Amino acid sequence: MDQQFASDNYAGLCPEAWQAMAEANAGHAPAYGDDPWTARAADRFRALFGTECEVFFVFNGTAANALALAALCQSYHSVICAEAAHVETDECGAPEFFSNGSKLLVAPASGGRLTPHAIRTLATARGDIHYPKPRAVTITQPTETGEVYSLAEIRAIAAECRALGLRLHMDGARFANACASLGCSPAEMTWQAGVDVLCFGGTKNGMAVGEAVIFFNRALAEDFDYRCKQAGQLASKMRFLAAPWVGMLESGAWLRNAAHGNACARDFAAMLDGIPGVAPMFPVQSNAVFLQAPPAVLEGLKERGWRFYTFIGGGARFMFAWDARPERMRALADDLRALAAGAICQG
Ligand SMILES: *Cc1c(COP(=O)(O)O)cnc(C)c1O
Question: What family is reported (predicted)?
Answer without folding.
Answer: Belongs to the threonine aldolase family.
